[in-house]
Amino acid sequence: MKRSRRFHHIFLVVIQAAAITSQTAVVASFFLRHPFTKERTESRVSDIKTSVLRLHSGSDPSTDRRSCVTTLILGTNVLLLPITSCADATDTSCTLPLEPASGGTFCVRCTVFGINANSFQVYRTIVDTGSPYLVLPFAGNDSGRKKRQRFTKVKEDNDDALLLSPSEYQSTSEIYGAVSGQIDWKLARYSFRDPRLQIRQYNSQEITSAGVLGVLDEALTNEATGGGTFQPYGLLGLIQNSNPNADRTRFPDPRPTFFEQECIAIEGSSSKEYHQIKSFCMNAPLRELTFSTESLIQDQSNAMQLFDLRKYGDFVDHYAVKVKSLSFDGLPLSKRGIKRPIVAVFDSGLTGCLLIRPFWNFVQEYYATDLMDNAKDARNFHSVSITMKGMGGTFCNITSNVKDDPRQFYVNPIDLDWFDEGGKAPYVIILGQTFLSQGTLTIDMDKMLSTFQ
């Protein structure tokens, strides 16, 4: 079964490549001979076959090649879904396949449509549990050979082939990692591989054709998505809630988050119903991202209560849990004398492990004193073990080290302006993919619960 699915996937990729390179004879031959019997693909394949025949014949002078290729690409994108994914999802949930991305992260495909229905672009968006917005990569100047390529086309004047339109939101200065830059806020028609995922109006239940997303400047593109590729990644931020009481002298007014605009369409008795997403699950071993209108945490005894950092001034509701114990290089960090909580933040957009600067300084001083190490240089850590306590008395243990994960493991400090001044903010350790790629992270945003298994 796995082998047949793999060949099915390869065939469809070849079809897309053939269409793009004008090898329509290859496309036509495949679709006219390949049997499709599953009910969920019959209508889609019918549309694709029609487009293939129109392209292959070339006899109709009115044939719009762009329109046919668009139908072909979008149709095969849907057929590329794993059989165990959206087709087998429950009525209240849907699942998207995860693909490898930069720095050990995962991404999902997001298609952005232009004003003209024949114009579209498919983006790979890194799934990021450490940010709140759907953002696309740099949309700089087109002119000049030495200029960076314009990856995201913004509507200017009356060019209906471009992808994005102005929104009511002004540009903002934002921070990703420790880098500050500008995000332009635009309107766009976008979709994912499961058509039940729909855009709804911000603070409304009304379904709309376009949602608000951000376009990163070049500095933020390089920091947040790795940059340097032919087409940089976007980001799919999965933090649902901002902090309405954050210090506006330090943080801009929040924009609509991805989850505040997204819903799942469910077939009702007489019509479709649209429900807010309340929970998500990122399964790294199976490479699946699941959204649900109900809780995905069935056994709450294993769940960890989320720790709300917004009461300390954090500008968004990062997914954080309290740490029970922590070890570096096999040496436990004593919590005696530490008057503030230690929390771990789950960040799937990060590769390694980061310690907020005050915590980093404390840890360095602690181990220098404990080991009587008088070295002036900062200590390089080679392993981290962390334990968090569940609500039912269970424990969640996560470990990573440079031996088992030499490409992704690192421990570095980071200067973050998350908290108000006063010295009472928690010590923060941020866990990236060197930890999260080992298991399944589930977040219940409605009940403020989390699990990692």
Question: Can you walk me through this structure?
Answer:
Strand 2 (99-100) and strand 3 form a beta hairpin. It is globular and about 65 Å long. By secondary structure, the protein is of the alpha+beta class. The model is unreliable at 1-10, 19-24, 31-44, 78-89, 141-150 and 155-161 (pLDDT under 50). The relative contact order is 0.12. It is built from eight helices and 27 strands. Helix 1 runs antiparallel to helix 4 (65-79), helix 2 packs antiparallel against helix 3 and helix 3 packs antiparallel against helix 4. A six-stranded antiparallel β-sheet has the order 1-15-14-26-27-16, with no helix packed on it. A six-stranded mixed barrel has the order 3-4-11-5-10-8. Helices cover 21% and strands 29% of the residues.
Radius of gyration, in angstroms, nearest whole number: 24 Å
Approximate strand percentage? 25-35%
Derived from helix and strand composition plus strand pairing, the structural class reads: alpha+beta
The count of strands amounts to: 27
pLDDT < 50 runs, ≥5 residues: 1-10, 19-24, 31-44, 78-89, 141-150, 155-161
The shape is: globular
